[in-house]
TrEMBL record:
It comes from the Bacteria. Keywords: Heme, Iron, Metal-binding, Oxygen transport, Transport. PROSITE patterns: GLOBIN. One of its GO terms (molecular function) is metal ion binding. GO terms for biological process: cellular response to nitrosative stress; nitric oxide catabolic process. Gene3D superfamilies: Globins, Translation factors. Coiled coil: none annotated. Belongs to the globin family. The keyword Plastid does not apply. This is Globin domain-containing protein. Residues 1-137 form the Globin domain. It comes from Acinetobacter gerneri DSM 14967 = CIP 107464 = MTCC 9824.
Amino acid sequence: MTPEHIKLVTDTVPVLRENGVALTSYFYKRMLNNNPELKNVFNLDHQSTGRQPRALAAAVLAYAEHIENPSVLAKAIEHITTKHVSLNIQADQYAIVGENLLHSISEVLDVPMESDLIAAWKEAYLQLADILINVEKSKYQGLTEQNGGWAGWREFEITAIDASENAKKFTLKATDKQEILAAKAGQFISVKVKVPNHDLEQPQQFTFAEAQNDAYQIEVKPEVDHTEYSVANILLDTYKVGDKVLVSAPIAKS
Ligand code: HEM
């Protein structure tokens, strides 16, 4: 990036941060309207709480602020890419997020898409996207290289549902009957379910309380005051032994 472009970006970070809510709500509305298939990727229950929407835009702003020394964000990059890999985020989806984010920045700052300012933000976004895409690529590769490991989604069957205090324990076995990656206590998987009465799937992370070997067991607790997209409530209310879910490989929290 040229020094002029870096200045354009860093000078506008505070304004965008002040308008953070407008930026993120415009961004998500626009993106999910134009690319409704992403409703299967983003957890719509989290969208309703506003937690995740703020996280993505805040991370882009934090990166932009430190554009001359992105190494200060190494921890954040590790955290984001771990989450992305557990959700099977793909390189080509970065273009969609970027396009919508740039339109949202143009809207919030009230500058045309063809301006120098948006060109500078585009460079900043692409630089960050490139870092994330490369880290994610090596994480996917690392997962496939381990015994029983895989990248993306794999079909599992619910083989048992046991009641425990205020929760149910779901036992999940791979339907291909092949080896599955062993997991340590504290690692997590994403589980994807079908949302009843909608043509939609929704993912959610579950952390293992104990080490796991030839099956995975997740504890599912009911979620109060959540939307119809709560994966925990969908599992508890509609899934039975013999039903199938999609599962991503266990990964360590960062
Ligand atoms: C430069 C681009 C991106 C940045 C800076 C970014 C940043 C983030 C951050 C900070 C989080 C929250 C992590 C957490 O849960 O603690 C997140 C989660 C997530 N990101 Fe990204 N992301 C980017 C691109 C993408 C792309 C291209 C996709 C796919 C379309 C995507 C999909 C998701 C999803 C589905 C979640 C989890 C949301 C949830 O559970 O509610 N992100 N991202």
